Amino acid sequence: MRTNPIPTLTPRQIERFWSSLDTTTHPGGCWFRRGTTNLAAYAKAFGHGAHCIAYTLAHGPIPEGHIIDHRCRNKACRNPAHLEAITKHQNSSRYWCIYYTGEAHPSQFPLTETERQSARRSPRTP
Ligand SMILES: [Zn+2]
Questions:
Q1: How many angstroms is it from 103 CA to the middle of ligand 1?
Q2: Closest CA to 7 of 37, 70, 65, 50
Q3: Rounded to the nearest whole angstrom, what is the distance from the C-alpha of residue 101 to the centroid of ligand 1?
Q4: Per-residue pLDDT of the chain (126 residues; tens, 9 = 90+)
């Protein structure tokens, strides 16, 4: 899937983006959006999730052929420390690692007890 490059943001947009995130209340260190922001809609219009903007602002452009994975497995998280650019193959490997071993891939955060129980109870089909 080819998406448009992430647009260059103004310093004011960047400041608003970071200040729209709740960076203090999640025990796992995840950063979630506080309410709706215009920037989230803006990002979507360009074919990106806000996590892609967070990644790009913190780490630089997303390498060609890569997607942004949440190492914490919280899809709404925008903490750049939890985001990693990986290939679709790597993403698939991480999924199957949990499916077959019942544990997270070593590059991901360990499964929570709830996730572990859920993985055991109802393995998803591909
Ligand atoms: Zn996170």
A1: 17
A2: 50
A3: 22
A4: 555 677 788 999 889 889 989 999 999 999 998 866 565 666 665 667 889 989 999 999 999 999 999 999 998 899 999 999 999 999 999 988 888 888 899 999 999 888 888 776 655 555
Cα–Cα dist 25/79, whole Å: 13
Ligand 1 centroid from CA 97, angstroms: 19
Whole-number Å distance, alpha carbon 27 to ligand 1 midpoint, is 10
User: What is the value of pTM for the model shown?
Assistant: 0.81
**Helix 38-45, helix 50-59: angle, nearest 10:** 90
* Separation between Cα atoms, residue 115 and residue 32, nearest integer Å: 19
DSSP code of 85? E
Cα 55 to ligand 1 centre (Å) = 12
H-type alpha helices, 30-112:
38-45, 50-59, 88-101
Q: Please, what is the Cα angle at 4 between 3 and 7, to 5 degrees?
A: 140
Structure tokens at 19: 């200040």
